[in-house]
Amino acid sequence: MKTQDSASAPTSEPLLDLAALRADTPGCTSVIHFNNAGCGLMARPVLRAMIEHLQLEASVGGYEASAARATEVADFHAATAELINARPGTVAFAGSATHAYAKALSAIDFRPGDVVLTTRNDFISNQIAFLSLRRRHGVEVVHAPDLPDGAGVDVAAMAALMRARRPRLVAATHVPTNSGLVQPVAEIGRHCRELDLLYLVDACQSVGQLPVDVEEIGCDLLTATCRKFLRGPRGSGFLYVSERVLRSGAEPLFIDMYGARWTAPGEYRPVETAARFEEWEFPYATVLGCAAAVRYALRVGIAPVARRTPALAARLRAGLAGLPGVRVLDRGPSPAALVTFAVAGWQPQPFKRALDDLGVNSALSFREFAQFDFGDKDVEWCLRLSPHYYNTEDEVDTVAAAVAELAGAVR
Ligand SMILES: Cc1ncc(COP(=O)(O)O)c(C=O)c1O
């Protein structure tokens, strides 16, 4: 996967064989897929792993098929741990990032008056979950302020809040869904470790796009999906639980016969590993697709992906900046591959449909997705374009030209 055929990067570093990667991606022939922040295009090995397993289930039986593929299933956990530099036994499969997040929150014994300290750019569903904890348990939700230029959370101010409020939980989203912002999760983590505070990171948009190292971040819990920049199937995600948290005995509120042993009529004992956060029933074809996707990402190499993907986004932003009627909304010193912009004179759905008609996949974001961020930027909606490493510079230029034409068109 790491051959030297690309023109621009230094020769000492592995480069991507773009032609091979695109040949491995059936969707590349039918669309310009700039909705990787929604769901990446699956590569052939992912598709194959899933289809073969469904065929096996159909021919030998579902339980028998999973028994026959036990090694490959276990590799989901091993590969994911390798991807995020986690210890064995600390990764749990989940049906989505939100499922993983809810399981993590359910393991915390919140009491009235406990503080959840988070940021103004945390993901919409996380914010709703915190509000739900406020409603049910009387938890106080505190948002750390942003830097004056809007380029992410003010870590010093967040650390001051940690010291003053001693939150029960610190929560940060690495890359929010609503812009290319990259939050300084490792800096936040250093303060959490210093103050011994429980730290939960949402890495849903960063896993598969940027290096995500749980040791470097210093988090206790981390959640992600497999379907976005990891290019796995829909209906999948994972939860990382540090050994420290596992040793503390933390367990999800509803734990099943897979996560715990029923040791006596009135007793149960959670298992030692993060399997405590899983359930007995797995979508095995999906888990195997995820294992294949994570192995694929490891073979391609996160380092070259993390160079190329944001660079394609930067090229796109440069192509959009200054277009009449277009306002690029991303902030921060090194934005990720989520390019967001507002377009004057258009309604959201017609604008997206116009791009659909040109064979360009995109996504819309609305103020509801990001109450603080869109309020600050004074926008009701924006279009999000999210390339990945398998997209080409030509596609970026085609998309920028399409936006220029639409934004300038009489409507
Ligand atoms: C930053 C972030 N966190 C969490 C999620 C939720 O992921 P899922 O749909 O897998 O629950 C998303 C989805 O877009 C996201 O962008």
Furnish the topology, listing elements before pairings:
Blueprint: H1 18-23, E1 32-33, H2 44-60, H3 62-68, H4 70-83, E2 91-94, H5 97-106, E3 115-119, H6 124-137, E4 140-144, H7 155-165, E5 169-173, H8 185-195, E6 199-202, H9 214-217, E7 221-225, E8 237-241, H10 243-247, E9 260-264, E10 267-270, H11 284-300, H12 302-320, E11 326-328, E12 339-343, H13 348-357, E13 360-361, E14 363-366, H14 371-377, E15 381-385, H15 393-408
Parallel strand pairs: 1-13, 3-4, 3-5, 5-6, 6-7
Antiparallel strand pairs: 2-8, 7-8, 9-10, 11-12, 12-15, 14-15
Helix pairs in contact: 2-3, 2-11, 4-11, 7-8, 12-15
This protein binds pyridoxal-5'-phosphate (PLP).
Pyridoxal-5'-phosphate (PLP) binds next to helix 5.
Describe the model:
The radius of gyration is 22 Å and the shape is globular. Mean pLDDT is 95; it is low at 1-11. Helix 8 links the parallel strand 5 (169-173) and strand 6 (199-202). It is 41% helix and 15% strand. The strands form four sheets. The protein has a seven-stranded mixed beta sheet, sandwiched between helices. A four-stranded antiparallel beta sheet has the order 11-12-15-14. It contains 15 helices and 15 strands. It has 411 residues and is of the alpha/beta class. Pyridoxal-5'-phosphate (PLP) is lined by residues 96-98, 123, 125, 173, 176-177, 202, 204-205, 225, 237. Pyridoxal-5'-phosphate (PLP) binds at residues 96-98, 123, 125, 173, 176-177, 202, 204-205, 225, 237.
